[in-house]
Amino acid sequence: MALYTYDVTMTCSGCSGAVTRVLTKLQGVDKFDVSLETQKVTVESSNLTEEEILAVIQKTGKAAKVASA
């Protein structure tokens, strides 16, 4: 299982809610955490790539990128 972290620009609970909704519906996501406070999203997945998850987050209209280590 892989753990991915993303920097996502979220300004309100609606923003974090949108990200939560798409990750909840995404097949292959085992566990995730969306933090409005830190602007970070962490996702655990056993069969999705970092890029596939990033693309889904970006479809919400939020600025998102892979967090630097």
TrEMBL record:
Superkingdom classification of source: Eukaryota
MF term (GO), any: copper chaperone activity
GO CC terms of this entry: cytosol
Claim: Nucleus is one of the keywords in the record: no
InterPro entries from the UniProt entry: Copper_transport_ATOX1-like (IPR051881), HMA_dom (IPR006121), HMA_dom_sf (IPR036163)
Gene3D superfamilies in alphabetical order: 3.30.70.100
Annotated keywords: Chaperone, Copper, Copper transport, Ion transport, Metal-binding, Transport
Record-level GO BP terms: copper ion transport
Membrane-spanning ranges: none
Domain HMA: residue ranges: 1-65
Protein family membership: Belongs to the ATX1 family.
Identification of the protein by name: Cytosolic copper metallochaperone
Gene: ATX1_1
